[in-house]
Model the fold of this input.
Amino acid sequence: MSEILIRNGTIVAMDRAHGATPFAADILIEGTEIRSIGSGLAARPDAQIIEARGKLVLPGLVNAHTHSSETFLRGRYERMPLELWLLYAYSLLMNDPIGERLLYLRSLLLAMESLRNGVTTLCDDFFDPPRHDLDRLATVFRAYDDAGIRANVSSAAMNVHTLDALPFVRDIMPSAMQDLLDFGPPMSAGAYADYCRAAFSSLHGMSGRLQFMIAPSAPQRCTPDLMAACMELAVERHVPFHTHVLETKTQAVTGLVHHGRSLIAYMHDLGLLKRNTTIAHSVWVSDKDIELMGEAGVSVAHNAVSNLKLGAGIAPIRRLLDAGVTIGLGTDGVSSNDTSRIFDVMRVAGLVHSAAGPDYEKWLRADEILTMATIGGAKTAMLEQVTGSLEVGKSADLLVLDMRNYPFVPLNDVAKHLVYSENGSSVEAVMVAGRIVMQGGRLTTVDEQAVFDEISELVPAYLAEHAELERRNAIFEPVLAEVHRMATAMDISLNRYQGDAV
Ligand SMILES: [Zn+2]
Done:
């Protein structure tokens, strides 16, 4: 088995013993795993040596929530709340699914940008309507396999009509317009469970790095029997039940109007809050919701940048942490974030909570943000035994950062530099499962320029089709804007509104 010795590095291990406190050490990697961490480690004569004096070695970052489906829509939208943005990024009227080659390149590009910026694990809530197709899912897996990244990949499920997953819209949308959105009978719980079983037997575990995860899109978008089937499978296979809950005020209103209670209380009543439950967003949660989430030991993927871009609000992260909820950081898709850089989310998460309330002792600390970006994220992905910290026996998923670079000069406090100064530009080398996937600032697994060339050749035609699709969908915009206005104007008497205490 090959050996790599990282010598004389400044280690930020994010393990229980050290947390984010740096220490000087060597790291010996054998095959895919970290074999030892300590000073003056010896390696075999044929071991590859990485001299890390003046360099920082930290666990690879975990992107706890993203959607590869959005990768080509970077830099396209602004000034739209979620419900309007969805109309264009995940349009109601659809074209044929994206072609096979572009499907591959879309995921590959996401993985490439992630690795270059220090993300070694991503959780891709892949959404590919109108069908769940194992071959297309396999294409996404192949892209991540080729890039060399670690990934949890879903095939996001929903079986409630979009118009029934929103409040008011059935009443205010003209029926002729509703008729345009007849998509036929929805998928049954059994059909989705069969699909997931096939994905588990054919793709799950690929190359030891790629997993299938279960992703019912949101409680208002799935029937209770579908969500029950999803949870059963998630528990059985020990993978996340990855879902979106209470991202916007409109969704908070949806819970009250459709179920007479918060969507978290609704999930609790259906037995859907468990260790496996990973909730993207959790912005519009009440004190009672937070209590239920903490008791159940769920995880939250905090998408600080996306939540700002879509005007969703600021998730009450301090109160979730206090309740015992595990927090990871997510970019969300590249359309609602415009990058897949977790360093950006770290910085925004480090800053935005100070605007949520005056009680400065409750503002988040840099070491807490780093925890979310590493071991916290790994827990949200149910991969904490594998990645998220530098520990003997864990997979060698790590970053080497050059501290002779602007974000670290002059050096004060490493954790604070990582959260408030670093943007990915100091990442020099990246390793996933003991394999060097980036070195000297270049990916070793993919010819980046060739991929850029192919994308600039193929994607303009796709985007032209997408522009035409946006024009067709624009007829629905006034109705969805009205839904947004009605929902946001409602006094929903949550015990908390945006802008109140942290
Ligand atoms: Zn999402």
